[in-house]
Design brief:
This protein has 120 residues and is α+β, with helices and mostly antiparallel strands. It is built from 2 helices and 5 strands, in the order ββαβαββ. This is GNAT family N-acetyltransferase.
Length: 120
């Protein structure tokens, strides 16, 4: 987990290894179910460090594909996911109170979960 100069946590990623939607084509998928960086630390490569760490965990657990869900109203996260090689493979609509919202599912190709994964 990345930390700031004073040792405080500045971000975290939550991983899961079950329950991938049908649109994710994988035998052993690994999910990044959450990746968060403290606001003061945006733009300082913390998310990149988290991505490298969680892809390494996925490799270590034998995942052949990494996937995640991203909320349609989070353009920063969408841009980051695209930059990291995730492509949209499906979506679902969910209710947030009375508001219907959309979450897209992104999948990183097998190459991103291989030992030769590009570091961007």
């Amino acid at each position: 987990m990345p930390s700031g100069q004073d040792g405080q946590r500045v971000g975290f990623a939550q991983l899961r290894w079950h329950g991938a939607p049908a649109c994710v084509a994988a035998e052993r998928p690994g999910e990044s179910s959450g990746c968060y960086v403290a606001g003061d630390w945006h733009g300082r490569s913390v998310a990149q460090r988290l991505k490298r760490a969680y892809l390494a965990q996925m490799r270590a657990r034998g995942s052949d594909v990494g996937w995640l869900g991203v909320w349609e109203r989070n353009p920063r996260a969408i841009a980051f996911c695209r930059k990291c090689g995730f492509v949209e493979v499906g979506a679902r609509v969910f209710a947030q109170g009375r508001d219907l919202q959309r979450k897209s599912y992104g999948q990183a190709g097998a190459g991103l979960c291989s030992d030769r994964a590009p570091v961007r």
